[in-house]
């Protein structure tokens, strides 16, 4: 038997089961923590910091594997990384374009880890992806990891990424409409017990598709990063975790003023459709034994700022709306991160407490020197987070 759906009939489908509907799922277990804790893996050259100051940070797999295993040892809940398709030279300077693929890299970590959730960032609107591919590959990784795998759904905000696959860039809000259609079909393939056919507005079609095995907990974990109206509406309907930015830039004091309203807006979008989402923010953490030492490092990073790519990650004709609050004249811009958390271990934890009070449900950490800074974080910051009630 094949169930047939035609254009437009995707609207009004019944609610799909989510990992949070199962108390024993890895996501439900992680959400018992007062504050989710993740690591933003640097699988791209330069990591997140546009500086030539010497450090160990490296895009290669062995380096990122070691980071993941250390994060798991420290009790982190999840890891993920970016996905990018760039021309020769990347954004320029330290961001020279060398980068691993997020889907393949995260999949390679599946058999090497035991507890940490693994999220693959994937552009779903272009490239090789068909919903049937993703449904099968995702269900397989779900079984390999026991429900620890998920997708950070991205639609592409740089013209060059679409053009590289032979397409003109799709208009911003239209991208979310097509991504919604894609995810609806993937979720049907994860849940349906009969063959499923579909013909919609995208270039792909589905004729009698069926996927086994079915995921362990309804479906894999779904994440997306957004700040626009269309993206927030999409997140409210589909995501478990929404990767947000500060609407007012990377300065911590400014961010703490704008985040309460922003996190409420994101969560209300889910409540409006009978769902719940959690927010995840990416701080760049510069922590040293004293405030003075932390700021001295920050100043050294800025003193070695790499100006060969003035716009950094916003290069190559980006129409991302989440970064509109970035100040191009910010003197600390080279440090990177959605926000900057700088100080002693006690000061860092105090800022984490304030971010939680602002409605942030989790932190996806970045560091300047990932290997050494993660080690320091585990030894000096994590115990204080537990004392502050942020971690069990």
Automatic annotation (TrEMBL):
GO molecular function, one term: monooxygenase activity
Annotated EC: 1.14.-.-
InterPro entries on file: Luciferase-like_dom (IPR011251), Luciferase-like_sf (IPR036661), SsuD_RutA_monooxygenase (IPR050172)
Transmembrane segments: none
Annotated keywords: Flavoprotein, FMN, Monooxygenase, Oxidoreductase, Plasmid
Segments forming domain Luciferase-like: 38-361
A Pfam family of this chain: Bac_luciferase
Name by which UniProt lists this protein: Luciferase family protein
Organism whose genome encodes this protein: Rhizobium favelukesii
Lineage: Bacteria, Pseudomonadati, Pseudomonadota, Alphaproteobacteria, Hyphomicrobiales
